Amino acid sequence: MVVFRERRQLNLKRLSLPEPTDCRPRFPLPLPPTTTTTNIMSATVTIDRLADLEKVQVLGHGNGGTVYKVCNKRTSAVYALKVIKSDCDNIVRRQIFREMEILRRTDSPYVVKCHGIFEKPSGDIAIALEYMDAGTLDTVLNINGTFSEMLISNIARQVLNGLNYLHSHKIVHRDIKPSNLLVNQKMEVKIADFGVSKIMCRTLDPCDSYVGTCAYMSPERFDPDTYGANYNGYAGDIWSLGLTLLELFMGHFPFSPPGQKVDWATLMCAICFGDTPSLPENASPEFTDFINCCLQKDSIKRWTVLQLLSHPFVSGDPKS
């Protein structure tokens, strides 16, 4: 006998974004020292004093702080210096402490390097990072236009190697997108911005909270009951990577028409209930299959980092 189950109705109210007060930490945040400027990195720090760094130009603003291009007056080495003001709100401060913790743990050619973390007497926090002279993939896309499959294959390989390193150290990034992938003139790509990342204690720790950029969230992050049963917490990074690579190829965010921004509710419905974005007809079969392996709505069916590293699109020779 065949039993038909009534389709579950999604409670849209349950999918609303949490109130800012719900995101506040339930524990007091550590306060920086108030007497001296302190370098709190490990023994691998290459910058001894914040005073050695001279500001060259502003690279960007956001998330409670400013990023500067700086030069070491003694060695002439160039870095990116992220400065977070002491009067930023608790959410931003919690994110910067999380990023500091992860940066201390990572050492990979595919992850942006940290050369020093300093806390000023004023309470400001300064993080000296590896300088990538071409900016982000988002910047390159806006300046140069769409990427060829050959370039995307190279980018995919590097990001997958970075994710393989992070995942093997039980770190989930949770905000993979073009603006969080740094690039230099040699087209070396490095994962950056760990403000919403998570260090997993167990493989199946939940990662379905509303952190990161909504546009690149996987379906199970919006609706874990439907798409997240027994899912691996690292699968969300793969979905975000698939959308990122598709955006580089198409020239715009895959779930919205070119030049158009959609509201959160429309975006959520498109990700959870709409069809998976399809590639243009000029895409190769290898690239099309690779994207399909990343954008499986059922997180269990989504390919892992190691599986994707062996995919022909990454390991073969895609068309230029």
TrEMBL record:
Molecular-function annotations in GO = ATP binding; MAP kinase kinase activity; protein serine/threonine kinase activity
Q: Name one GO biological process term.
A: response to stress
> Which keywords does this Swiss-Prot/TrEMBL entry list?
ATP-binding, Kinase, Nucleotide-binding, Phosphoprotein, Serine/threonine-protein kinase, Transferase
Give all residue intervals belonging to the Protein kinase domain: 53-314
PROSITE patterns, per the entry: PROTEIN_KINASE_ATP, PROTEIN_KINASE_DOM, PROTEIN_KINASE_ST
User: So what does this thing catalyse?
Assistant: L-seryl-[protein] + ATP = O-phospho-L-seryl-[protein] + ADP + H(+); L-tyrosyl-[protein] + ATP = O-phospho-L-tyrosyl-[protein] + ADP + H(+); L-threonyl-[protein] + ATP = O-phospho-L-threonyl-[protein] + ADP + H(+)
EC number(s) on file: 2.7.12.2
**Binding site residues for ATP:** K82
Organism domain of life:
Eukaryota
Q: Does the keyword Mitochondrion apply?
A: no
Q: Does the keyword Cell division apply?
A: no
- InterPro entries linked: Kinase-like_dom_sf, Prot_kinase_dom, Protein_kinase_ATP_BS, Ser/Thr_kinase_AS
Please report which protein family the annotation says this sequence is part of.
Answer: Belongs to the protein kinase superfamily. STE Ser/Thr protein kinase family. MAP kinase kinase subfamily.
PANTHER family this protein is in? DUAL SPECIFICITY MITOGEN-ACTIVATED PROTEIN KINASE KINASE 5, DUAL SPECIFICITY MITOGEN-ACTIVATED PROTEIN KINASE KINASE 5-RELATED
Q: What is this protein called?
A: mitogen-activated protein kinase kinase
Q: Which organism is it from?
A: Kingdonia uniflora
